[in-house]
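REQUEST ID: PR-0412
SUBMITTED BY: lab tech R.K.
PRIORITY: routine
TASK: structure prediction, single protein chain
INPUT:
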Amino acid sequence: MNSRSLAALMFAAGFMILFSAGLASAGPDPASSPSGLYFPSDNYDPAIAGPSEFLGFPLGSKPASHAQMAGYLRLLSDTSPRAELNVYAESYEGHELYYLIITSENNMSRIDEIKQAIKKIADPRKMKSGENIDQLISGLPAVVWAGYSIHGDELSSTDAALAVAYQLTAGVDNETKSIRDSLVILIDPLQNPDGRERFLTQVRQFSSGVPNPDLQGIQHTGVWPWGRGNHYFIDLNRDTFTLVYPETRGKIGVCVEWNPQLMIDSHEMGALSSYLFSPPRAPFNPHWPGDIRSWWGKFAADQGRALDKFGWSYFTREWNEEWFPGYTSAWGIYLGMVGILYEQAGVDGSQVKQRTGQILKYSETVHHHLISTLANLQTAADNRADLLKNFYNIRKSAAANNDNSLGRALIIDRSQNPGRVDRFVETLRLQGIEIRKATREFKASGLRNERGTAPAREFPADTYIIDFAQPSRYLLSVLVDYDIRMPNSFLAEERRYLEKGWGSRMYDVSAWSLPLAFGLETYIAGSEIDVSTTEVSGIEKSAGGVDGENPLYGYMVDNSDDAVMYLLAEALDREFNVRAAAKQTSVDNLDFKRGSLLFVKNENPDSLEAVLATLSVKYGLKVQGINTALASSGPDLGGDEFSLLAEPRIAILTGPTINTSSFGSFWHLFDKQLGIRVTPIDLNGINHADLSLYNVLIFPSPWGDTYALKSVLGSGGTAKIKEWVENGGTLVAMGNAAAFCADTSVGLSSVSLRNDVLEKLDEYEYAVKREISADNVIIDSLRIWESREEKKEPKKEEAPAKPSKEELIRQDEFARTFSPDGAIFDCRIDTTEWLAYGLGESLPVILFSSNAYLSKPPVKTVARLKGENEFRLSGLVWPEARARWANSAYCTREGKGRGQVILFASDPFLRSYFHGSNRLFLNAALLGPGLGTRQSLPY
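STATUS: complete
OUTPUT:
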């Protein structure tokens, strides 16, 4: 027997395992009846080795590793003229991410021509006069993106991708040939290699010689941090439009390059379920292209028939909703693709006993994805021309923008915070959204922003203008719309579920607006803008540099740009002495805002100017040489209003109790973005840690509540944190960690949880009134300097009796039922506080919490949600939530001994893209050791 015949036999053996394991008696057995498949399993090109031969074990009998997967794809690419392997990214752990192009040999010979033709369909404005779209489509294959295993602990998808790749590459039956002729298939077999390798290590560590289907076994549960996220534990299926991580940036770049018409997104779900696929259920996002929903019925019908042949259970719509555009399948919809989600009951590479007593084996989970993918590809092949025409029509409608549904253009003034604005614009540009820049000053009217109608205003040259009349309009609209509202029909259903105690029907956040998340001042223009523009093909970072070399006194850097925090982090890491301005000042005919940085020459080494020159160019900041300490207005530079900062020595709590995404976003922020050292410390072992090595302790939001944290920390751990704070430490806690600190039995903070002080609400209401009054001072000089008779206040009617404590508790518990799950709120900012450096008077924040925080002096409330009728900016907020969270505290600071406690009601850097509220966090972590504590003097 020759090697190729052996290869065919081994692959057939592997497929027999795939096709026969765990099947119900209903339906054909594909191992003995190839007609039970869409494609025969015994008709392959003998020159191409099957995956079982390459792997050395039957495909589907256990999970393949990243190296095994990559090796097999290279083999296909090297041995088949119908396959081409490409690298699109590299993970943080050095794993390459791939996509495999599979199509017919004829299509492969003209692949660049096909790609260019698809680009023309994707941008109908490029069609020449008289060029016929039907003629262009007639000889053109459609493009399909098939993505697998974006979550590392969802194993079956990657092995299914290998089966799909072999079938499409080596299959010589008529059905497979027709698919290759009609389609260009882009297979992304593993979108999260770091997470998969981490989870496979756990699977191997806890596997037994005798397979155990008990779902409670540690092989199935895994251990923290599991494998869902990437190296930094980030859920990449929430990064699709934020593009923070290299895995996502590479994938989206390829999608924008290829413009697929079908996007398959393959996942796993709970082991005791069956199999879910599209269509989703309500709520349906109003920015969806109108023709997308009709395609789901067509694909679902064919996919259902394919699964019915084996008697497999499945369902659609039940829990999957795609209101949020951050999932991969949902994101593609807005670019004109048909997005299809798969969710297979996962068995963690082994087997699980389900409620019926049946054993679900890993091979069967792989098989379900294989059959589903082949069914979807057959539907796409059968409807090739219609898919392409539908894609063209969606993109053409988007480019016309005839309904002007959202407006004419989004306007962003770059001067407000250049680093953050550039990051925002680049995030959109990398998704294929066209950006232009004004060549001169201009005036725009008919404006609105997140707070409503805005007056006409002048904009400077270089202002970014993003026209809605472009082929990617639907995606642009869903990302920048300030407030997308759900239909009443869904709200009635959601209300019913909440009132009956069944939980929310929302699967994820109800709001995500990028302008609000970035904390930027943007405007939507309702009419055309009269100004010439140039296309932005890439972001040109500000030049930076030092103005006024070799000054007499020192150097200053204005703090308007977020990039100043990056320069500060590196300067402190180099042990330079840096001061921060407590008030706005003017010196050498230049104005510097509160929080601006001062480097005094005689406090620093001679290398200061050379280092600042390098850092200023690196971060695109202007550093200004200063020749005098004497200010023309504001405080002089040598006084106490310029406080010396301290180098932050940061530890971040981690471990099984901590939310992996919350921890990961801050770990990534320090490690990869700021580039400063941070020490992760296991919360469970804090009693054994030497906290004196650190002056900042970050407490990310935990999974559990206060009771869970008390159990983990014990009285000893809590006492240790208290003592560390009182000795000069800065504790920064968020989400449920803030609730732990605010718990009266813990005593780490004087901030109160609303449900703990229901009988004292009037005290906190009074504190809010005093805050507002202090910020809106009105002087009545006659009452100050002149004596006059006071007008007697009319006699007040007797106040109604207060509800009993029991009634207050009942009301509060009911209101908590309607807690905000990912809505965006407007905060008042106390700009006199150093935590607010670089911020304006208002700030959008996102809340994911059932806890409302109340504060009063001596606690400093740096960010407080606005009043009931003005604080909702975006997302679903029920009237009960309005009443409960209005005027509640979002960010507080209070002194404890020589240290301080800073609380955030929710994660300020949610999913690594809420840059506005992240500035508060950066101030806390980098400025806190110097500005909010009393440090020991050096000796």
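NOTES: Confidence is low (pLDDT under 50) at residues 1-10, 19-40.
REVIEWED BY: pending
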